[in-house]
Amino acid sequence: MSNEVSPAAQLVGDLAPKLVELTDEVLFGEVWARPGLSPRDRSLITVSALVAGYRTGQMKSHLRLELSNGLTVDELVEAITHLAFYTGWPNAITGMTHLKEVLAEQLEPKELHLVQGTCHIDLYCKPEHVPEAVAKLGDFFNTHLSGQRSVAR
Questions:
Q1: Phi, psi (5° rounding) for residue 125?
Q2: Is there a single domain that holds both residue 102 and residue 46?
């Protein structure tokens, strides 16, 4: 068993240990592990429920989980856009705003160095997000910077 403290325990472990136990063991230990749906599909259902129910408190943590479970940014944008017509515009705008904030956290350059006309950016993101981060940086450079630019992909 891991010594890592679960997100539920961090949030309410001191107040509601039974809720933490049910969250960790039943919800994430059993329900999410059932073979009927992949973690990716469960993530898509979860983001849909959170956006539809305007459950903003859990939205960012689940958006992070959904990205790590294989949903792409484009799929999440499309799902949330689709939900606007069924759950209301404010719900979709809020969902999209939270997604934008999560992406900014994952792709945000932590250091920027300009040296003799060159630019060096150190990114701190999960390895699985590196290709997307590089692509987004390439798009940024192509859109906002003039002159010769080269972005390794």
A1: -150, 165
A2: yes
- 87-141 pLDDT, tens digit per residue, is 999 999 999 999 999 988 876 554 444 444 555 555 555 666 667 766 766 666 6
Give the residue among 80, 18, 21 at the shortest CA–CA distance from 49: 80
Is 23 among the domain residues?
no
Distances (CA, A) of 75 to 6, 23, 47, 71, 96: 27, 27, 11, 6, 12
Tokens encoding 123: 């990114």
Q: Is residue 87 part of a domain?
A: yes
Q: Which range of residues forms the domain containing residue 112?
A: 108-144
Identify the H or E element spanning 10: helix 7-12
If asked whether residues 83 and 135 sit together in one domain, one would say: no
Alpha-carbon gap, residue 102 to 73, rounded angstroms: 11
Tokens of 51: 């956006």
* Interatomic CA distance for residues 80 and 76, integer angstroms: 6
| 2, part of any domain | no
Whether the full predicted model's pTM is greater than 0.70, yes or no, is no
Q: How many structural domains is the chain composed of?
A: 2
